[in-house]
Design goal:
Chains A, B: One of its GO terms (molecular function) is isomerase activity. The structure is a homodimer. By secondary structure, chain A is an alpha/beta fold. The first copy, chain A, is 39% helix and 14% strand. The first copy, chain A, has one domain: Alpha-Beta Barrel (TIM Barrel). Chain A is built from 11 helices and 10 strands. In chain A, the strands form 2 sheets. Chain A has an 8-stranded parallel β-barrel, surrounded by 6 helices. In chain A, strands 8-9 form a two-stranded antiparallel sheet. The longest helix of chain A is centred in the middle third of the chain and has 22 residues.
């Protein structure tokens, strides 16, 4: 909250405003749980993302399957291991709301491949994005049922590989075309029939900050929080709804309260910064990572440990 | 669903696609509950909107306070009465989430004026748009509490004037900057402590179509549904989030199911078409109204009467 120690001339991405706190150095213990989601630096290859994390002292990476496929799972997994990084999540499985049996079969098989990759990377979880309404289909209740069925179908295969499935509830702005599971409550309803070590949820501040009762739902989630992701809700909303996420601290989200609620469940995993935003992507990756680290230190990390009353 | 009887050369607004059904004539009994919200034909003055409704056989108008103020409440009310129209709603009261006592006082007084206008127009309800987060304020729970308090403060004044207050839950896309009440469930939680003849809700398909459990919430609302509004959720979302609404039938919303659920509560009020969309606004008002009437006849009106099992 103070700019006193911020080095002159350092600007935040993408606001261009002066940095409010110094950039933490590699090895700073406050960075111990920070993860870069690859989409935050979308122009970086997997190799560049690994090197960028190492250079900035970010110990964990959220890996996307597409850039991983460019080098192959085996090579990617080795690079990550040799760099000493953790994999906070693999993005993405899911997209299993089709009403067409052939398409559902293809989605199922694709998800099995995603499970194998997640296991090979020893990642904390496979993120499941449920998918939207099929073309021309207006039955959102049906699509939600199929999402729940697909999770149930996948769960034993995940368990067999020691992989955790993290259902990602998505902001209702994406209910039609991306994710029919719209609230943390709904994601937990889908997860709860399953083993708490196999099926859980992603808590992404962008998706759930507005949800009535979200703090109760976070408490309810307990050990089922497999991934905590942070990015901000900014206004006016950028023109492309898919790129509408803001840098932590640029918008309306109360990170202190949400982070404290997640921490109170005992969550001790990584905190991943995932930002889809054209202005962020236009900046050099290392500046994005530096801003992300500063904002995390300022707004998120102080709330990660439950306060102990003496 | 058939284009068999559609006159050649008639196109829908804004899609430009051929009309799928004939435009209903004035006097068609299927138009008996259709209302034009003034913002759907935003370029029309109040006088033009009244004349447009009469010409198209639309019996009811959702009035906005700004165009009403241009001619004055007394003149506007007389025009509407002389034209034989009903007023399905007055837009808008609310915007009472400020944390500043002076601003809250001003909002309260503005809402009292809105109540007077609603009474003068003999409108079915005053629509309350709660308002967003105050500038720089990230406490959405606090803003929601203030919205509930403001409704409680306003209720006796509404009752004294015989005006009904319709809380409008808004799609979470607007939670930060327009409406912190994000679900029908939340709106009903605010309404329920009050007299069911004084405080109720708007059910707007655009805002609630994605809500988990929305059909149960509509049933719960019962007599508290004061306004049923229809417009569609389209993808890709237009660049301006405030103008992202689609013509009924152009998007992903299941009007049959939602309309039948509203009808099953015994709702017998008007059905208002409210569309904020730059492409709709670029079209001549009479073409917009004609498209709206066709889509209503095709997709909404057949589901308005609860089916009687013989």
């Amino acid at each position: 909250m103070t700019a006193v120690n911020a080095p002159a001339g350092v600007a935040d991405v993408p606001s261009g405003l002066p940095a409010r706190v110094p950039t933490p150095e590699p090895g700073d213990p406050r960075l111990a749980r920070l993860a870069l989601n690859q989409r935050t630096t979308a122009n970086w290859s997997l190799r560049e993302a690994i090197d960028g994390c190492v250079a900035a002292g970010i110990p964990s990476l959220g890996v996307w399957r597409e850039p991983l496929a460019e080098v192959g799972v085996e090579v990617g997994a080795r690079w990550i291991r040799e760099a000493g990084l953790r994999v906070s999540s693999v993005c993405r499985g899911g997209f299993f709301t089709s009403a067409d049996p052939d398409e559902r079969r293809r989605a199922y098989e694709e998800n099995l491949r995603a499970l194998d990759e997640t296991a090979a990377l020893d990642a904390a979880a496979l993120v499941l994005v449920p998918g939207g309404l099929p073309e021309g289909d207006r039955d959102i209740r049906g699509a939600r049922s199929r999402a729940a069925e697909a999770v149930a179908e996948l769960a034993p295969h995940a368990a067999a590989r020691g992989v955790r499935l993290a259902i990602e509830p998505m902001h209702p702005i994406y209910a039609a075309d991306r994710g029919v599971v719209s609230t943390l409550e709904q994601a937990l309803d889908i997860a709860e029939p399953h083993d708490p070590d196999v099926v859980g949820v992603v808590v992404d501040t962008f998706h759930v900050w507005w949800e009535p009762g979200v703090l109760d739902q976070i408490a309810r989630a307990g050990d089922r929080i497999y991934s905590y992701q942070v990015c901000d809700w900014i206004t006016p909303l950028p023109p492309d709804a898919l790129l509408s996420r803001g840098m932590v601290g640029d918008g309306h989200i109360d990170f202190a309260t949400l982070t404290a609620a997640v921490a109170a469940t005992g969550y001790d995993g990584d905190v991943e910064v995932e930002i889809f935003n054209a202005d962020v992507w236009a900046a050099p990756g290392d500046e994005t990572v530096a801003t992300m680290a500063r904002r995390y230190i300022e707004l998120v990390e102080p709330h990660l440990s439950p306060r102990i009353t003496p």
